[in-house]
Amino acid sequence: NCLLVFIGESDSSEYCRNLLRRIAESGAARRIRVTGWVDQDSFRAHLAAADVGVQLRTLSRGETPASVLDCLNYGLATIINAHGSLADFPPEAVWKLPDQFTDAELCGALETLWRDTDRRHRLAACGRELLLSRHDPQACAAQYRLYDPWGLSSWRPETDAGAGFPPLICDTCQATLDAGRRDDPPGDREVFAGED
Fold first, then answer.
1. CA 48 – CA 38 distance, rounded (Å)
2. Which residues pair with 81 in a beta bridge?
3. Nearest-angstrom CA–CA distance, 43 and 24
4. Which one, of 77, 84, 174, lies nearest residue 192 by Cα?
5. How many CB atoms lie under 10 A from the CB of residue 24?
6. Residue in 25, 32, 34 with CA at minimum distance from that of residue 7
7. Beta strand extents in the chain (DSSP E only)
8. Concatenated DSSP letters for 3-32?
């Protein structure tokens, strides 16, 4: 009893029209949902209910998508393609398809993770460990503080105004460090990442 849920806004593009048509003609339409845009609470509810996350990219700007980190944060076995920065993810933490993958490769990954519960759980645990060890907000902010070739961490508006270094990065790092001092369990923290 599987349910496939596409979360996100669908538009009137040819791609979306073809996807919706293929879903309707598939014979499995009752087990496939397209949510459209959802708010953050709904997105989190979907993550909490899922067993596997699929995050595929093309034409990125090299960033690590926050939605990939969200899947890892929620303990999902996560399937990605080796595109942009995702190519650097270790294979024990995610199921990494080639950048240009085939439908058969994606179906094979989904079927394997559906059938092999132990493998799915191991992949999810390794992904969560990767998130906590390399993408933890406190650790990321501390690294920005340590690696500061422009001297931004010492920028002071009262003495450095006009120096051309806005305090946004330093303020963001400090706010992240301050937020991380709370006693929230790691699963309840927001993930520090770039735009999707």
1. 14
2. 97
3. 24
4. 174
5. 10
6. 34
7. 4-6, 32-34, 52-55, 77-81, 95-97
8. -EEE-B---SSHHHHHHHHHHHHSS-GGGE
Whether the model pTM is above 0.90: no
- 35 burial (CB, 10 Å; 0-12 / 13-18 / 19+) is middle
Q: Minimal CA–CA distance to 56: which of 37, 80, 78?
A: 80
Q: Divide the 196 residues of the chain into consecutive groups of 10 and give the mean pLDDT of each group.
A: 88 90 94 92 94 91 85 96 93 96 96 96 96 82 70 59 48 51 38 33
Residue type, 31: R
| H or E segment and range at residue 132 | helix 117-134
In the chain, the largest separation of any two C-alpha atoms, in whole Å, equals 68
Measured over the CA atoms of residue 44, residue 46, residue 48 and residue 50, the dihedral's sign is negative
101, 103, 167 from 95: Cα distances, Å: 12, 15, 38
